[in-house]
Amino acid sequence: MTPNLLGDTYRDYIACLNQQDWAKLDYFVDHEVIHNGQPIGLRGYLEMLQGNYREIPDLLFKIELLICDPPRVASRLRFDCAPRGEFLGVAVNGRRVSFAENVFYEFAEAKIVRVWSVIDKAAIEAQLAG
Amino acid sequence: MTPNLLGDTYRDYIACLNQQDWAKLDYFVDHEVIHNGQPIGLRGYLEMLQGNYREIPDLLFKIELLICDPPRVASRLRFDCAPRGEFLGVAVNGRRVSFAENVFYEFAEAKIVRVWSVIDKAAIEAQLAG
């Protein structure tokens, strides 16, 4: 895959998440996907995403930076949302917060096989303390 | 710059940090560098790094993943170290922890002009709680 095609595939994946079009998820995510070292598979990946939407009803993925170097993609995602209760162990309780996720993906045959994600928990804590 | 050349420059930058060769830092970092939205400049950048080494005497930067798409680089850095006291607001107090930093850089004329960094604070907390 060329960098441009990989970037297009990634943008389509993010659109799929924002539409919560779960029937299409296996078009983008491999059945054997590993997330932060855990072999959660497509089913675990779907459960994670559905859990995110339950905890954060107004969740929206916005790509801030995209770096493509096949077979890998790095993306900085921006979230402006109001998690209902605890999020990452922080008692957000419906307050509005803005935070980033810096996340790396490895693709194989146009599907995500590995994810390395870090969410900016310190930024969330700083906003709630402020 | 080609992706390969940018990758080489980045690896040289990390070697410079690991050698604490501060006289060379301005070879890699622009005088007007912006770090996580803060225009800290080369002097602020140097002070940040020197502060890191004071807080974490055995600090070592190890590149786990490197994604180059000029003028941008994304890197997953791995740290295995023992911060002396508090680190990111966590009372580590000399215990050994392993954590990642997912970080993006923008280069201009072979120097770093912007950095977007997220450190995996939740992983540190999980290790200390375990």
From TrEMBL, chains A, B:
Signal peptide interval: none
Pfam families: SnoaL
UniProt cross-references to Gene3D superfamilies, sorted A to Z: 3.10.450.50
Gene Ontology process terms (BP): polyketide metabolic process
Entry protein name: Ester cyclase
Organism: Rhodopseudomonas palustris (strain BisB18)
